[in-house]
Amino acid sequence: MGITARGGWEAVKRHFREIDIDIQTTPFTVIGVGDMSGDVFGNGMLLSRKIRLVAAFDHRDIFIDPSPDEDRGWEERKRMFELPRSSWQDFDRKIISRGGGVFSRKEKSIKLTPQIRELLGVDSDAMPPHELISAILRAKADLLWFGGIGTYVRASTESDDQVGDRANDILRVTAPELNVTVVGEGANLGVTQRARIEFALAGGRINNDAIDNSAGVNSSDMEVNIKIALGAVLREGRLTGPQRNKLLAEMTDEVAALVLRNNYLQTLCISLAEHRGPEEAGFLRRLMRTLEASGRLDRQIEYLPTDAAIVERMARGEGFSRPELAVLLAYAKIDLFDQLLESPVPDDPYLGRELMRYFPKRLQKKFPQAISDHRLRREIIATMLSNSMINRGGPSFATRIADQTGASSDEIARAFAVARDSFELGDVNSAIDALDTRIKGQLQLQLYAEVQNLLISQVSWHVMNDDPARPLEDDVSHYKKGIADLTKVIEQVIPEEMLQLLREHQSSYEAAGVPATLARRIALFGPLAQAGNIIMTADTAERPLAQVAETYFAAGAAFAVDRLVDSAHTLHLPDYYDRLALNRTIDQLAAAQRAITARSLDAGKGAAGVEAWVHASGHDAARARRMIGDIAGSPLTLSRLSVAAGLLGDIVR
Known about the structure:
By secondary structure, the protein is an alpha/beta fold. 63% of the residues lie in helices and 7% in strands. It has a 6-stranded mixed sheet, sandwiched between helices. The protein is globular.
C-alpha cells in the first residue's frame, strides 16, 4: 500500500494547504534523503506529479537536477521505483536538466556546475561529497522529505555526540541552517526533537516522526485486528484460508482510507492547537502538570517547555510549537485511553458502536457478529473514543473539562457523544473537509475552530446537566430532535440585533467562498449553543420549544447577558484558573437566564413575558438590570463579569 509514505504525505499536504498551496496541482521543489528503491522515499516521491525533485542523496549517490521537468521526472522516478533494485545511477541522464547529474559518494571531489552552485547558493567550484550533501540540506526548497536512515539535522544547542548517529556527523546541519518551508519525516529521526522545535519556533512547518510516519504502525494494528475478527469465522468453517486472503485483498483500499483518515485528523488537531496559540497555552500547561503528577510525563525528557518558558512565550503572543503539540497529543491520547479502558465506557451499548466504525464496511456487512465478539473490543472502543475526543477537542480537552466540571473520563466521554451526535458535528466537519484547497487555509482552520468551540461548550454543559441514569441513546435522540426543531425557528425567535450579527457572520463566510448551507450552519452555532438550556427549560416548564426559545433570548437581551458573554469571549486571560473562572461565570449567567425564562413564561411569552416578570419582581430586579447594563456597557473584566453573574443570580434565588 505504501501506507507509511501516504500517511506522511497527508501531513505534508496539510502543511502546504494551510499556507494556501495545493501541492497536487502546483509545482513545488523538493530535496530528499533516500532513493527510489526505498518504500518511504520511493512511494513518497510518486504521490504528486507536481514534485520538482532538485536534489537527493542516499548512502551511495548524490542526485542533482537544478531545473527539473516535473512530468518527465515523475515518469522516470516511477520507472526506477518499479525496477527490482535501483539506485540514483539508474536515473536517465537525458532527463536531468543542464548542469545536473548523479555523483558517487566515493568520489574525492565533485565538480560544481554554475547551475548547481546557483541551486545550492555556494561559490565553490568543487566539493567533497560530504560537503555537497550538507549544502543540499541547507539548500532553498519548498519541502525536505526524509525517506532514508539517519539523523541529519540537530538543534544549534546540541552537539553531534548528543545526537548519537556518528555515521552522519560529517553531513549534519543545524535547524537554523534549513532553508525549506516544510519538513516531512516519512523516516524515523531525520531531525532531532530539539531541532524540530527550534525550526518550528522560527516559522518552519514540521510535526514529528511519530505523527508523520504513524500510518505504517496503524495499518499493521488494523490488519492484526481484522485477522483476529476473521479467526473465529475461520474456525467455524464459514470462511476458508484462500477466501480470507481474498477478502483481505479486497479491503486494502478501505483499510488504507481508514488509516489515512487518522493521519488527516491528527495533523488537523495539531494545526488547531497551533492556531489557538497563547489562548491554548494555559490549558496545555495544566495538561502537562496533570501528566507529571501521575508520573506519566517528564518534560525534560520530552524537551517540553518549563512554566517560565511558557509564560515568556505567551507574553510574546506565542503558544506551543507543532513538535511539542505532537508529543502532548500522544500523551493525552494514551492517558485518556487508559482511563476509558478502566471505566464502563466500552460496555455502553451506544458508545460500543465505535467498535464497528473501526473496521472496513465490507467486514461490518459480512461478519458483524465476529466484530461484536472481538476479544479486543474494549481496547478498540477505548482507542476509537480517545482518538475522537482528542482529535476533535484538542490535546487538553479531557483535562480541561475535568477541571471545569469535576467530571470523570467516562462522564466526559458520554457528554462528548451527546454533543457530537445531537449537533451532527460529524457532518459539519465533513463539509469543512470538503473545502480542502477551495478556501484559504486559515479560514478553514477558523471553521474547524468554530466547531471545536461549540463542542467544548456543549460537552461541559451536558456533563453538568444530563441525567446519567438516562440511556445515552435516548439523550442523543432527545437533544438531536430539540436542536433540529429549534433550528427551524431560530431566526424567528432571536432578537433583531442577534439576527443581524448572525446574518453578517454568514455573509462574511459566504464572501470568502464557504458554501451558503455550511456558512449558515456555522453562523447558527452562536444562538444554538443555548439549545441545551432552552430544551431543558421547555422540558421542565412543559411549554412549546419556540415559545421557550423566544422568552429565553428575550431574557438574555433584557439583562444584557448576550453582550456580556460576547465580551467575555474576547477577554485575554493567560492564567489557567482565570479561564476556568470565566467559563464557570458564563455557566452561572446561563443558569440565571434559564431561571428568569421559566418565571417569565408564567407571565407571558417573549419580551412581554420578561418585562411583566421584571415589573412584578419589583425594585431588586430593576436595580440589578440597571447595574448589569452598566457593566455590559463598560470595558469588561473578569471581576465585573463575576459581579454581573452574581447580581443576576441573586434576583432568581
